Structures are given as C-alpha cells and as structure tokens.
Amino acid sequence: MTAIVASRVSAASRGIRTSRAHAVPCDSASLAALQLGHAQVTGATHIAAGPFTIPGTQLSTAPLPAFCRVRGEASSGAGSLIRFELWFPDGDAWNAKLLVTGNAGYSPMLAYGDMAMALRRGYAVMGGDTGHQTENPDDLSFVVGHHERMLDWGARSIHVITAAGKTIGAALGAKPVRRSYFFGCSTGGHQGVAELEAYPDDFDGVIAGAPGNNRVRLNAGFLWQYRANHAAHDDTMPILTPASLALVGRAVVAACDANDGVRDGVIDDPRDCAWTPDALRCADDRASPACLSPVQVAALKAMYGGARNPRTGAQIYPGWPKGSEAPILAPDGSVLGGWNRYWGTNAPARADFWRYWVFDDPKWDWWSFDFDRDLAVADAKAGSAIDHTSADLSAFRRRGGKAILYQGWADPVVSAYDAIAYYEKVRAAQGSQSATDGFLRLFMVPGMAHCARGPGATNFGNQGGDAPVCDAEHDLIEALDAWVERGTAPDRIIASRVENGAVTRTRALCPYPRRARYAGRGNPDDATSFTCR
Amino acid sequence: MQIRHRGSQLLVGGATALALLVALPAIGAAHWGLTPPGLTPAGPVVHTKLGDVSGTAGKLPSVTAYLGIPFAAPPVGGLRWRAPQPAAAWKGTRAADHFSPSCIQGPNTPFGPWTSEFLLLGPTSEDCLYLNVWTAAKGNARKPVLVYIYGGGFSSGSGDVPVYDGSHLAADEGLVVVNMNYRVGALGFLAHPELTKEAGASGNYGLMDQVAALKWVRDNIAAFGGDPRRVMIAGQSAGAMSVYLLTASPTAKGLFQRAAIESGPGGLAAMGISTGAGVTRPRADAEQAGVAYATKLGASTLAELRALPAAKFVGGGRFGPVVDGKFLVEETPETFAAGRQNDVPTLTGLNADEGSAGPGYGKATADAFRKQVEQRYGERASRILATYPAGTDDEARAAAIQSARDAGVAGVERLLTERAKSAHTAAFAYFFDRAIPWPERPEFGAFHTAEVPYVFGTLDVLKRPWTDVDRTLSKTMMSYWANFAATGDPNGAGLPKWPAFDPARPTLMRLGEKVEPQTPLPRERYDLLTQ
Predict the structure, then answer these.
(1) Nearest-CA neighbor of A320 among A431, A235, A240, A397?
(2) What does the alpha-carbon distance between residue A374 and residue A361 come to, in Å, rounded to a whole number?
(3) CA distance to partner chain B, nearest, from residue A9 (Å)
(4) Chain A residues near residue B23 by CB distance under 8 angstroms
C-alpha cells in the first residue's frame, strides 16, 4: 500500500530535451510569436529537474522533471487581464494531454501543488490567476468597478486560458493536445462545474471537488451560520466556542459512528444520524463545559437547519451535516477547519463579498441583512455572473465528456447537502441514474473536510498530492483518464488514510447514491471488506 | 500549517492538508501566503524557545517575514487585565506566515491624512499578543534589532499596518525588524481598585505586553540573526510615549540599548501635550475613572467585567498609562531628574505639522488665534501674541503654525536638556518638515506620522507622486535610524553630520528637502514657550 509514484517521477526526470523537427523551442521570442487569439505569451524559461521554488515566494514543489515554464496573459474582453502559466515537460515525457487547474477562494494564486503533481505524470499543466492581480488573497474589492473580473473569476478565465494552452502545448510538443482535463476543488470545483455548464467543449474530462458553484447562496449560508452563532449585534464571542464544538463533534460521533456498522470515528452518512442537540443540553440549564446551554442548543439547531427565507420558509442554503462541526487542529495547534474557523470569528466569512460584490458599500452591516429582500438583491447583482447551477449538462454529455465530482461529508465550507442537491438536480434533468452515471459521478467522502483532511480516509489524489497508489482505482486523475480514454467508468475509488507517511486504512468511495457497505467480516481498515451498494 | 514532509521525495499523505485554508483563509484577515497544498515552505525554519517557526516571503526577495509569533498567552477569560503570561510551547513547525488579529479596538476608518496605509488591515480579537519579525540576516549574523511600537493613542494600532512593513529596513539596512501587538483601550489600560487589590497594581497591561515582547526579543532574536545586545526601541505618538515610559520603567531594565521617540513627549508640545502629565495619570485618578467606566457598563464587580464580551470595551473612555507603582513608580520626569532611568542613547524629534489633522489648522483667524493662545498660555498670552503677531487673518495663519512648531521644538529641547542633567548617553534631535507630496490634500503638510514611511522605506505603499527629494530623504533617514540602532549614533559615511544634542546649543537636525542642522530657537522664545 505504500508503493508510490516514484518510478513515474524518475522516468520523467530522466526525460532529456530532444529537439523535434517542428517543436517551437522554449524561449520567449519564439513563443511570443504564436498566434493565440485573445492571449499572448509574455515569457518562457527552461527549468532544470529538481524541486522548483515558485518565483516571488518561498514555496517549493516536490522534485519535478525538467520543464518549460511559459507565462502569458489572456483577455476575455474589454478590461479583462488574466495571467497564466503553462508548464510543459521536456522531451518525450509529454503524454499529449493538458491538465488545467482551478483556484482557491478568491485568491489569484495558481494551484502550483496540483500543477506539480500532474507535471510529474507527464501532463502539460496550467493555471491562471482568475483575472485579478491583487496581492492579498482575501481582498475581494477587486471587482469594484470591474464587473468583468467577477465573470472571469468564476468561469471565463479558465475558458480563455485553456484555449491558449491548447495552442501553446501543441506548439511546444509539435503535435496536437489530444486530451484536456480540468482539476480543481472549492472555487476550483466551482470553475469545473461552470465549464461543464457553460463551456462543454473545453474539456474531455473534469474533476470538480467541493464545488462552490451555488455561490451567492453559499455565502448567504455562511452569513446565516455566523448570525446563528452570535448574539445579535455582538461580534466578539461565538455562542459555540471551539471547545463546545469539539464537545458536539464527540457526541455526534459517539451517537452515530456505529450506524454504518464500523466504529472508526467516522460517520459514513450523516443523513442516518438522528442525534439532536437536546441530548447535550445541561440538565438544569446551568452552563458547564460538559453540556450546552439553551442558547447554544438553539444556535446549533439553527446551524444544522441552514438558511431559510424568513417570509416563505424556503431553504436558501442547507445546513451543514453532523460530523462537520469539530475543529480540526494542525500539529502546531492552529485551527484548520471546523465551524469555529468559519463562523466563530468576529466577522462573517466573506463579509467582503456582500460589501463589494453585492451592496457596493464598505460599511455594510451584516446585522442588517434581510434573508428575503437582500438575498434577492444579491441574486440580481451577482447571481447571474457567478452562480453556475444549471442542471442541463447535456452538451457536455453529448460531446463524450466525463466528470467526477467529489465532496467531503465533514466539509465545514461547502455543505455536502448542497453538492448532493446539485447532483440530484442534474440527475433529474438527465432522467435516470444510468444516463447520469454514463458521464457524471459524484463521490461522497465520509470524514473528509474541505477538499482534503479530516478523520476519514481522505487521500485519493484529490489535492496537492499523489494518492499512495497511483492507478485508476486509487487516484482521481488516473480514474478520469481511464474513463475518458478507455471508457472504464470509476465504479469505486479506493481512498487511503495516511498517517505519518504510512497508509493506516483504505476505504471504498462509491458513486452516489451508492454507499460503501461493510460486508460484516474482514478487516474494516481494508477497502476490500466493503462493497458499493 | 505547512506540509510536514520536508525533505521527503514525494508528497504523500499530509500533502493535502491545506486546501481549506487557501480556499477560505481566516475570515477577512490579511492571511497572505498560507502554504498551499502540495507545496512546502522553502524558507528557513527558525528555532525559538517555544518551538520552530517557518516564515513567508517579505516584500523584497532577500527578506523573510515571520508573522504572528505568540509572545504571551492569549489575554482572554481570567487573563483579561492581567500581566501577560508565558505563551504555550508548540510541537512541529508553526507557519508564521500571516499576521495575527489586532487587539480589540474600534473600526479604523481613514481620517484626515491617515489613509488606509496607516491603519490596520485585518480583524481584531482579544487573542492578539503576537509579534512579527522581518530579517534578511544569514547564518550566525548578529544584526542590530529595531523593535517598533505602534502609535494610535493607546486605543488603536497594529503590527500589520502597511507602512510598518520591515522588509526595506531589513533588506537595505541589515536590521532585524520586530513589531508587536499590545493591548489598547480599556482592555490594555483599565485601572480599577479591585484589579489593584488582585495584583498590587492596575492598568498598563499594554505596556507590560511591550515588555513581554522585548523579553521574547532578548531570548529569541539571535535565532533570526539579530543581536540581543543591540536592541533599539522606536515608536511614534503613543508608541513614542511608550518608548519614553520604557526608558523610565524598572521592569524594562536591560531589555534595550537605544530609544527613538518620534512625535512623542517633548515634540507633542506642538499639540499642547506636555511631557509629564500629558503622558501618564496618577493611580488614584485612573482607578476612579475605571470605577466610573465599569459602572457605566453596568458591571459592579471585576468578575462581571471579565464576563462581558470584549467588544463592550471599545470606546467609552480614554485610557492610557498610569503611575501604577510597579511599571512606573513615579512621574517620568522625576525618574530622569533622579537619574534612575534606563539610560540609553536617544533619538527624538517632531514633524512640522503635527496638528494638521485638526479642522482649524492653517485656517486661524486673528480672533481665533488670540483665543487659542489665551486658552493655552494663560498669563503668558500677551507675550506670545507679541512674539507671534497676528493682526490680520493672514498673519494669524502663519503665527498659529509657527508658534505650534516652535512649541514642539522647544518641547524637544527641554526634554533633552532635562535629560542631559542625568544622562551619560548621547541624544539626537530632529525636525521633520517634508510635506508628503499630495496634490489633493496639500494642507496636511508634514503631518503627525508622516515620517514613518520615510523611516521604514515604505513610501511606495502610499500612492503619492514621490520625487527624488522624498526617496533621497527616506534613504537618509533609514540610514540614520539603522546607524543609530547599530552604534547609538546616527552618523555614518556619506550622511550629513548630525550633531549630538548639546543643551548649550540645542540644535535639531532638519530632515526635509535639506538635511542639515537647524539654527536653534532664540533663547527668549524657548523660555517663553517652556515656562
């Protein structure tokens, strides 16, 4: 289980640049001469094999094979500027495929870790800055006076750079890009879904994790959770502290872990969990670290319930599942996830979205937000630009495209229920499970937080690192490639739990709505003891 | 928060750690440069006494910034209004790659000359006792250390303010630059009889935080290439007052070897703030004010006060240093008169237009000026008005500005003259009169805080039509400050000679379009203004 992709890396590293008859060389002048339509190469540098330190940062990749690092600029129209990079492996290492990576949050930073991972496998890889160049990844004011940046951020930037990338890749490799894939999570997942919906011809295959494609409502969900977790107009103290959320997390797992037949600290399907916050209510309503006050119980119920329209009662965004509450701590004690990270601070997550993308008011007061009237304003102002929730993916299916969605059940950022709701909407539009299975599969990941990590088996080549075994049964990109190239659909993906570099558990991830069921015998830490049903 | 597989050939497992941070970094914060998935910090790891830290890229390629290092336990819950307690140690490597929240304070809204570059960036939290380090030092270098203490009236301020970025002083001048967050407002300075009963003193928590940070510097800065025996503390406005009080506090003895007081005690006479009473208040007064404040909040006991949410302590009173009997055992002028101060070389001065953020600055009428002088100078008013004639409104405008400048210069001269009676170390005084180029708002001139981006070399943080004069001046000031940190004397090769302060000929160095010693204030003016 610990065999890794070492052989691939060394094979790629051995690749020596050989001159091809018609390949455009890796130099700025030659590449700048390429006719790319709405894009232009601005520079190219040959990078020797080894760990690559991203210029302008103090961040390094794992060792890479030698490659050509191409930088360029693209535009989707007036006022638009999208910077991108394309990394092209030397010599014979190129597999004639292009993999485009998505972004994270509202940051212009490229997913260099993902690019490095796929480059090592022979892909030409690329990423863009979403069409804005601000230094601070939390600065959402970049759309002020620049509506085009809103459009670029969520969808168009990927479309535009992909077109350029296909031409550049073909020039450097002296042959056409035979396949193109998209790979992203979170905002990257959002971009992936946007591609399926709006630009179905761009990619033969798309991997979209934890898609934030229902973006206006996702941010409304954040706001709802924040307000539920604070006394009105008091931003200083969350009602549910990290300690109380840890308490809730333990209680939920204790109550529902065994529902799936395996006690492993992971709730395989929170929909089966009947636990309610009242179970933790302090006996005489006297606060204690071992129980919840009535105010905390009420806050917790509001957060499980999710955002609703106060007038119509309609669900705006679902609540977050049981099992996503508890803080996840890094070894250094810093908080990586959990509800407290997003809604336990003293300002709502993504307050700047409302300030700059919706209300154009730096002094906007989140306590004044009306989940009926103001949400309509948001839908009108930003929804058409950034939401990608159309159920009609038939154009992508017709062109033979394949897409893998994945979503952590313990994700405290994108609610697993929203990812499922979107999938079910697409399935309804397709008319049947089998029609949907033919081109789109959703893999729910028990015990996984946002895109990665968490108490479950969460390593399957999903973000920034290779799966422990790099084959179509264990790794997303390999699985997608097998589906596109050979028509071998992923009937399951084996996810690994890796602790201190060693695989301690494997589990099967199943295409929704199937779930991994324990056979009742066999090692519960081994995926072969589970079947998808 | 970095990937903990440094040195491994492949990023297996743990590589996926960081998706959510990048996807949704701490809310609204200036969390720049969180280590993204699949990448490892290439910067060096530094071993501190509490654990390892890895940094992030500074603003210049040679600089590494270590941001948000804890120097005290979070002062929350029962630790509210207590002396800072030791921070907990950690295992593994702490990614010191983003600023911590700032201490609890009201919203920082741009005001007058203080545009957003002078204000904090990120969110606030009661859990705020973290410091930041910028260094370009290599190996076992022992570079002089500049510890900067922010201003903000003891009610605001943060280490994440953009003009305080230490990258340029680190890269160009070889300093190791440190700043810390310290508690401000009621949470930093509340005095109350119950607190006094509990701990033997009350108030000054923000100043104690500064001392805790200086102890961290003493214990850890060598690991960042800094020399713990050459620590310069510098501050502006309330930060300058802090520096002044640190030179007087027995609790700060030995923790620093130079002091820079920018637009603080002395110079702030330009704004009518006197050196002693304007900086500290007696314990009894502060406690009385504290009780009144607590009552206003509806809290009758300390336990009730500690149970209130932190946001309740924004605004609602003026808080600042107290002669508490511990941090300060007496009024600071007394400390100096008796020679009990922490005697270190001192650099101090003021700006030409300290009061320009005020609504009436440069707009005085003859009447208004006369009233202002009568108010401020009482029986000296007629002599002041004779020295600064203001028969017409035009004259009054000039007189108001000149008399304020002279009062500030006289304040600096007096501070250093008094100091010289007991000090065994040199002092250097300046008068900064470069009006920041700002075509839209020329009236602010060389405003309060204007020198800070020159000292830090952070002019380009501000979008202003800088000229060669500004860049040369900034370079000169950076060198003066760095030389002073290194040796206790700002002078060095290629710089105009800055004479040490001599009470017999009290010269201030002009830092402006020209950099040269100024003619001292006429004796009779000094006497008149400092009576």
Answers:
(1) A240
(2) 13
(3) 9
(4) 104-105, 185-187, 210, 413, 450-451
What percent of chain B lies above the pLDDT cut of 90? 75
The dihedral built from the CA positions of residue A337, B162, B449 and B135, taken in this order, carries a sign that is positive
A254: tokens are 């204790």
**Do residues B176 and B226 lie in contact, with contact meaning Cβ atoms separated by under 8 Å?**
yes
DSSP letter at B329 equals S
pLDDT tens figures, B37-77: 777 766 678 999 999 998 888 888 889 999 999 999 999 98
Identify which of A201, A208, A187, A5 has the alpha carbon closest to the alpha carbon of residue A109. Answer: A187
Mean of pLDDT over chain B: 89
Phi, psi of A402 (to 5 degrees): -125, 140
Does the pLDDT of residue B116 top 70, yes or no?
yes
Instruction: Look up residue A122 and give its two tokens.
Output: 């022979």
- The verdict on A19 touching B (C-beta cutoff 8 Å) is no
pLDDT class of B376 with cuts at 50, 70, 90: confident
Short-list B131, B257, B153, B83, CA closest to B247 = B257
C-beta of residue B35 within 8 angstroms of C-beta of residue B3:
yes
* Banded model confidence at residue A331, pLDDT cuts 50, 70, 90: low
Q: Which long-range contacts (CB under 8 A, 24 or more apart) does B483-487 make?
A: B484/B232, B484/B258, B484/B260, B484/B345, B484/B347, B484/B428, B485/B144, B485/B145, B485/B146, B485/B175, B485/B230, B485/B232, B485/B258, B486/B144, B486/B230
* CB burial readout A59-92, b (16+ within 10 A) else e: bbbbbbbbbbbbbbbbbbeeebbbbbbbbbbbbb
CB pairs under 8 A between A and B: 223
CA distance A461 to B6: 19
- Would the pLDDT of A464 be above 80? no
For residue B276, what pLDDT is reported? 61
pLDDT band at A458 (very low <50, low <70, confident <90, very high): very high
How far is it, in rounded angstroms, from Cα B482 to Cα B490?
7
Over residues B409-463, the pLDDT tens digits come to: 999 999 999 999 999 999 999 999 999 999 999 999 999 999 999 999 999 999 8
B443 is catalytic: no
Question: Mutate which of B2, B39, B297, B308 to test chain A, going by most A C-beta atoms within 10 A?
Answer: B39
Who among A57, A186, A450 is closest to B57 (CB)?
Answer: A57
The answer to whether A432 is a known catalytic residue is: no
Q: pLDDT at residue B161 above 80?
A: yes
Contact, B183 vs B103, CB < 8 A?
yes
Question: CA angle at residue B236 from B235 to B240, to 5 degrees?
Answer: 60
pLDDT beyond 90 at B386: yes
B346-351 and B258-262 beta bridge pairing? parallel
Average pLDDT along chain A: 91
In the prediction, which pLDDT does B444 show?
95
Instruction: Report the half-sphere exposure of A465 (CA within 13 A, side-chain side).
Output: 34
Q: Compute how many other C-beta atoms are within 10 angstroms of the C-beta atom of residue A428.
A: 11
Rounded to an integer, what distance in angstroms lies between the CA atom of residue B60 and that of residue B57? 8
Active-site residue, A450 included: yes
Whole-number Cα distances in Å, B21 to A346, A371, A413, B37, B512: 17, 27, 10, 9, 45
> Which residue in chain A has the smallest CA separation from B91?
A332
pLDDT confidence of residue A398: 97
Chain A hits for B28, Cβ within 8 Å: 138, 345, 347, 351-352
Nearest C-alpha in B relative to A10: B9
